[in-house]
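Exercise 7. Given the encoded structure of a 250-residue chain, write a plausible sequence.
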């Protein structure tokens, strides 16, 4: 499952002017979750700092999500860098700073761009100048994996940009406290042992305190049952478990 968040970027001739959220996703907590975006700004001096292939190879190890280029050549220079980086989306402005040759601004993105635009700025001693802007989509990738899911987390993070995983079955060996330490950027859903919910309230308290006291500090966690709630869990126990989640998590 993928969810989308829009980010607004403005690139000025001197670098990144601003980056901000244009909407709000509150699925993971009562507050808007943090979104980590790898961002770079680079002035390539009319392309004299290197051909697109060289620039792409230099930037490739950093796995950027957005790159703002200043003083880029017109045409497909930016797109050629994107081909090497696996970044298919680009926008190049049409105003060359101070009427110099090949001093355009451009945006390169890993995800689709929308509302691309350029704002002309006429200032004393340096005219025309401009800023380019666009909105980009940030994808949330969620995977539901039964059984012991730890071995696939790193693979999915690298290959498809995994952000969210569930349900972390305790019977298979999943421990969301330890997994949270190993993968601090992963949003986790689940990890509450359904077998414990069928026991008494003391067992439920002990289990929830172990998990929620640790993950409340960490964040990025939604406490839910580690699979479907079985018939062995009576309504009283279930309501008690939910009540304690609110108390320990707030």
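Solution.
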């Amino acid at each position: 499952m993928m969810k989308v968040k829009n980010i607004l970027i403005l690139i000025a001739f001197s670098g990144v002017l601003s980056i901000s959220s244009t909407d709000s996703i509150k699925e993971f907590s009562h507050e808007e979750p943090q979104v980590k975006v790898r961002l770079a700004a680079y002035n390539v001096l009319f392309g004299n700092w290197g051909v697109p292939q060289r620039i792409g190879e230099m930037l490739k190890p950093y796995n950027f999500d957005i790159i703002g280029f200043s003083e880029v050549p017109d045409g497909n220079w930016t797109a050629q860098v994107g081909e090497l980086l696996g970044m298919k989306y680009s926008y190049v402005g049409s105003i060359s700073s101070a009427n110099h040759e090949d001093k355009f601004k451009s945006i390169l993105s890993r995800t689709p761009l929308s509302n691309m635009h350029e704002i002309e700025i006429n200032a004393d001693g340096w005219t025309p100048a401009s800023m380019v802007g666009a909105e980009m989509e940030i994808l949330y990738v969620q995977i539901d994996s039964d059984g012991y899911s730890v071995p696939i987390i790193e693979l999915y993070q690298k290959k498809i940009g995994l952000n969210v995983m569930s349900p972390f079955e305790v019977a298979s060996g999943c421990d969301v406290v330890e997994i949270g330490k190993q993968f601090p950027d992963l949003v986790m859903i689940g990890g509450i042992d359904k077998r414990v919910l069928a026991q008494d309230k003391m067992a439920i308290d002990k289990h929830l305190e172990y998990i929620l006291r640790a993950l409340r500090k960490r964040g990025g966690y939604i406490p839910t049952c580690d699979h479907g709630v079985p018939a062995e869990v009576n309504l009283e126990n279930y309501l008690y478990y939910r009540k304690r989640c609110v108390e320990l998590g707030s």
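Remark. Residues 2-138 form one domain. Students should compare their own answers with the one above.
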